[in-house]
Design a protein that fits this description.
The protein is of the alpha+beta class and 324 residues long. It contains eleven helices and twelve strands.
Length: 324
């Protein structure tokens, strides 16, 4: 009887030991699999917790006329941001600085929504945009009066700029937004030579802490500015043609160099201002633009019956003999 009890106890002990060793082996094998086979996967996930990859957009290439006068370029746009410092609530000094900024910008920026965003941002370190497209004069005043405020930061990006507005817009074209919020050419040279004008964006690796505060940045690849596109247009002649064209008619005017066929000026009326498409359009503005079909390039895309070519011969003869 005693031997049977001993055998039974030994059997249970062996079973428990086997189960324990089996479970321990499974855990060890799982840990080895996670440490060795999934090392790169978990390393990448851990790095995503404190590293951010940012795209640095490069300036778009310029478009110039035959005399290297800018027809399409970029202008710097300054934005004022409030960088939280973890104070959890606005101090009297911070409230005073916000009031001074509001006075300099001459527009209300202190609202319940902004104060709420700043209060939340003090916990998350997430920057809050206070004003966009600040003028140089306003920016100088801010730098002079409250430049030592650690909460204020200026960020600058480039926006497309057309110095002559609607002049030669059918040749230059315009930019339009995409799903990923990047702008690309939708018409004219902006679309035809999009790859050359776009350039190459850079990549910046930013390190943050657990609260989202910026620690350091390192460039992975530098941005490459877009190429400059030289045209045969002469903006001075283009502006003259634009001024003398009868605005009560729809049509086109072309001036070419008879020796090589270069297009010196080209007018298609009605025309449009490419600056309108840099920001979202209201429905009323869009329907107003559609009324006169201004996006039709009547010099290249419209169909008109040809006139009598022999009239050119006759008028040339009259000019050569001095009759007219």
């Amino acid at each position: 009887m005693h031997n049977r009890q001993t055998i039974s106890i030994n059997y249970y002990l062996h079973t428990i030991i086997i189960l324990f060793v089996t479970a321990l082996s499974i855990i060890v094998m799982r840990l080895m699999y996670m440490q060795l086979m999934l090392c790169d996967h978990f390393t990448l996930k851990s790095e995503k917790n404190y590293k951010r990859i940012e795209i640095i957009h490069c300036p778009r290439g310029n478009i110039v006329d035959r005399n290297n006068i800018l027809l399409a370029t970029n202008r710097p746009v300054a934005e004022l941001y409030w960088q939280p410092t973890g104070n959890k609530r606005l101090s009297p000094q911070q409230q005073s600085d916000l009031a001074r900024i509001q006075h300099i910008l001459e527009k209300p920026i202190i609202s319940d929504d902004i104060v709420r965003q700043i209060s939340i941002g003090e916990y998350t370190y997430k920057p809050i945009c206070l004003a966009r497209d600040i003028s140089f004069e306003q920016l100088s005043k801010i730098e002079e009066t409250i430049s030592d405020n650690p909460n204020l930061s200026i960020q600058t990006h480039f926006e497309r700029y057309y110095p002559y507005g609607a002049c030669a817009s059918h040749i230059i074209g315009y930019l339009g937004g995409q799903i990923d919020h990047e702008q690309s050419g939708k018409m004219g040279l902006e679309k035809i030579v999009e790859e050359l004008l776009r350039g190459k964006d850079g990549i910046m690796l930013t390190t943050i802490n657990s609260m989202g505060k910026h620690i350091q940045s390192r460039a992975i690849s530098n941005e490459l500015r877009g190429a400059t596109i030289h045209t045969t247009l002469d903006i001075a002649i283009q502006r003259i043609c634009q001024a003398v064209f009868p605005t009560d008619h729809a049509g086109s005017m072309i001036i070419m160099d008879p020796h090589n066929g270069d297009i010196i000026a080209l007018v298609s009326y009605p025309t449009f201002d490419p600056m309108l498409f840099l920001h979202p359009l209201h429905n009323e503005v869009w329907h107003e633009l559609q009324a006169g079909t201004p996006f039709l390039n009547r010099a290249f895309s419209a169909s008109y019956p040809p006139g009598s070519l022999f009239k050119l011969v006759a008028i040339s003869a009259f000019l050569e003999h001095g009759y007219i």
